[in-house]
Amino acid sequence: MRESFHYLCGQLIKIYQRETMKKYILDLVVRHITEPRPGYVLLQLTDPSAPLPAMQPGQFVEVRVDGSPQTFLRRPISINLVDRAANELWLLVHVVGEGTRAMSLLKEGDVVNIVAPLGNGFTMEADRRYLLVGGGVGTAPLLYLGQELVTLGSKPAFLLGGRTADDLMQLDRFRALGDVYLTTEDGSAGERGFVTQHSIWQQDGFERICTCGPKPMMVAVARLAREKGIACEASLENLMACGLGACLCCVEDTVDGHLCVCKEGPVFNVEKLKW
């Protein structure tokens, strides 16, 4: 019995080590910080001493917020882009509270401590036609996903929505990767309405759909995908404090039970979600 117990403990330690080896605590340097629109900042971070670790589209990082006495927990931020040639990690930050406000005040040369990569990313297949649907800051992970799909030989198209034209960011970079379709609620760019009302849905040929943004938008996208019989994945934006599945802040009710989005997601096949 004792030998079996020690064997089990040894196996658990090996599993723990294997899993934790995939995560890194990194001190990255701010190479550039820009404001793509009021209320948002784009951080371009680099490691001056080593290549960045492998990261998948759809994964996220936890950022330690320094210089903010009220901010005790790290902030989860989606991976916007990994530029291997420049050895840069891009984070598009929506300034909504004390933590993200402190991040917006960073300067070039400052050091940012992150834990990365966390969570599970999107499913990527070669030679497939993808429709990537995003709204608000939810468009951020779709840029990196589009870049990696092009590398695989797949053809991504982007359907991006916002309240006004000012909400649509990084359009030049999206257009460099594939066709871009826009919707705005006020009609100031693209078609008037929501992303689920765009005429692109009348086209056939899409084989996979990936979406990220406000939950009502993703629920509506998932419904359309089911109606059309297209496989769909959604990147959830539940509140995530620890990023490791320990604090239970981000639990989502799924067909497999209550799961931590930060560990089992943030990307889920919509058939697993009780939407």
How does this model look, in words?
This protein is of the alpha/beta class. Helix content is 23%, strand content 33%. It has 6 helices and 16 strands. Strands 4-3-7-1-2-6-5 form a 7-stranded antiparallel sheet. Strands 11-10-9-8-12-13-16 form a 7-stranded mixed sheet, sandwiched between helices. Strands 14-15 form a two-stranded antiparallel ribbon. The chain is globular and about 50 Å long. The N and C termini lie far apart (46 Å).
Compact summary:
This protein is an alpha/beta fold and 275 residues long.
Order of helices and strands: HEEEEEEHEEHEHEEEHEEEHE
- From the helix content, strand content and strand pairing, which structural class follows? alpha/beta
Strands, count: 16
Basic shape: globular
Number of H- or I-type helical stretches:
6
Strand content: 25-35%
Which blocks of ≥5 consecutive residues have pLDDT under 50?
1-21
Calculate Rg over CA atoms.
19 Å
For the sheet with most strands, the description reads: 7 strands, antiparallel
Could you give the order of strands across the largest sheet?
A: 4-3-7-1-2-6-5
Name the average pLDDT: 91
Distance between the termini: 46 Å
Instruction: Provide the helix percentage.
Output: 10-25%
